[in-house]
Amino acid sequence: MTDVPYEEWRRRAARLSPHTGHHIGGAFVPSRDGATFPAVSPRDGRTVADVAAAGAADVDRAVAAARRAFDEGPWPRLAPADRKAALLRLAGLVERDRETLALLVSLEMGKPVAEADGIELRALIGCLRWYAEAADKLIDESPRTDAASLALVTREPVGVVGAVVPWNFPLTMAAWKVAPALAAGCTVVLKPAEESPLSALHLAALAAEAGLPDGAFNVVNGHGETAGRALGEHPGVDVVAFTGSTEVGRHFLRYAAGSNLKRVWLELGGKSPNIILPDAPDLDAAADTAAWGIFFNAGEMCTAPSRLLVHRSVAGRVLDRIVDRARTLAIGDPLDPATEMGPLVSARQRDRVLSYLEAGEAEGARLRAGGPPPGGDVGYYVRPTVFDQVKPGMRIAREEIFGPVLAVLEFDGVDEAVRLANDTDYGLAAALWTSDLSTAHRVSRALRAGTVWVNCYEEGDMSVPFGGVKRSGNGRDKSLHALDKYLDLKTTWIAL
Ligand code: NAD
Fold first, then answer.
1. Disulfide: which of 42, 186, 221, 301 matches 197 by Cβ 3.0-4.6 Å?
2. Contact of 183 with 83, CB cutoff 8 Å
3. Is residue 162 lining ligand 1, measured as CB closer than 6 Å?
């Protein structure tokens, strides 16, 4: 894929004809009232397609289809091995259409096409296969009780799952909900972000082709305040699995409280600290990873190491290397194979990030790299940005920016570093660089985060859970633990 030239990518992109309806009950349908919204590409601000925009009536139709498929349809009643086979067929079709899906992701949200293929599609296929394989390995329990009775503890699918996801990894985030929910025997209504409906719709078409029963997997497109809210408030939805901002996570808790008390699983934002101690095994590697971590995916990463806490004695060396990387990173069209960092997802997101650059300077941080966007008005680009002399109370040190903006704070002692690291409302991830085993254990225990990386960043595997604490959320995606979100424990007593 990497040897396809730029011109050819552009030709292939121009030939795409994306699906644009909602996918409900096994077929593409328009909105009841005919409403649409433009799917705009951040690479040039042009509309790729006009996509059906769901209102409450469309969400109701999708939930009804999922409800029927769950209450009366074959999916929850299939032998687990048959659900596994269907999900493996879906993974195979994704593999077949890998390039189309990668192009759709790249066009709709601006990820370099090689990363869309190498990271996003790889994650989607891996996740579908992993949960497919798990589907027929779930075992129920029969605890030992008294001799006159038999107790069975069975794991029952919870019902209809509403999955609401963001645009930064549109297919991976969807897969982390949809794959375990389907493997568990639930049916699903997915609402992708309004910035990234096209890849999700293609996935729905492949699910139908793979032979998933009608209504088992539905996709409704549209805005958060309408489609997302209608799903959150719908009494026919048993569980909401949400990934997105902390602010919208709060809305889902309110929707649940005001409707049927559906269970709500939240994977939310972050402001992750990355602590570099002077005894890091390789300071240059620590600096390179810090730079990679904050600029990868244009900083649109929930786990981005956006707060670098570096020991004063090595701050100069580490920072020079990061600033150098920021200045040399190739920013450009995500369809150009030479591009290392594409645009931000939307004009709104670009303006939001630029407002933090103003706030950083206004509050007295020093801009070491970055500044105004490159190259005129075409596309929503922001330069990789580094601020040093950041104080813990500044907005750029406290708020999730979700862009390529690094805030650097210096410290003198390990305890001070831990205090600074934990001085945040968030608790998604944290990292530490040290050669001392005791320090590694002591500090990783003290850090309040769902994931702590020692001498690495963004390590992950399907078998390892992922999620946050504090205002970064509650549930865990990935691993066998994620299946628990989509399974209820049912107890049956039988008198013998
Ligand atoms: P967002 O919260 O604005 O939107 C996420 C989803 O919620 C979208 O589908 C959107 O349409 C919907 N939505 C928005 N407003 C809504 C409302 N009022 N009611 C119902 N639904 C609504 O987030 P985003 O801008 O798409 O994504 C960025 C956020 O996602 C960041 O905070 C990032 O940290 C977080 N994120 C977290 C993880 C994780 O695993 N913890 C992973 C990726 C992204």
1. 221
2. yes
3. no
Distance 229 CA to ligand 1 centre (A): 12
User: Is the CB–ligand 1 distance for residue 177 below 6 Å?
Assistant: no
* pLDDT above 80: residue 375: no
Q: Which CATH number is 6-268 given? A: 3.40.605.10
Kindly state if the Cβ of 334 falls inside 6 Å of ligand 1: no
Q: How far is the CA of 33 from the centre of ligand 1 (A)?
A: 26
Torsions phi, psi for 85 (to 5 deg): -60, -40
Q: Tell me the pTM.
A: 0.97
Query: Could you read off the pLDDT of 26-72 as tens digits, one per residue?
Result: 999 999 999 999 999 999 999 999 999 999 999 999 999 999 999 99
Average pLDDT over residues 283-303: 98
The share of the chain scoring above pLDDT 90, in percent, equals 98
Residue 40: exposed, middle, or buried by beta-carbon count in 10 A (0-12, 13-18, 19+)? buried
305 Cβ inside 6 Å of ligand 1: no
* CB neighbour list of residue 127: distance below 8 Å, 6 or more residues apart: 172, 175, 176, 179, 462, 478
- Name the phi and psi angles at 318, rounded to 5: -65, -45
Atom index in ligand 1 nearest the CA of residue 473 equals 41
- Per-residue pLDDT averaged across 183-203, rounded? 98
Q: State the Rg of the chain over Cα.
A: 23
Using a 6 Å cutoff on CB, does residue 268 contact ligand 1?
yes
List residues with catalytic annotation: 267, 302
In this structure, the residue with its CA closest to atom 42 of ligand 1 is 302
Q: pLDDT tens digits, residue range 466-492? A: 999 999 999 999 999 999 999 999 999
Query: Domain 273-462 in CATH: superfamily?
Result: Aldehyde Dehydrogenase; Chain A, domain 2 (3.40.309.10)
Distance 166 CA to ligand 1 centre (A): 5
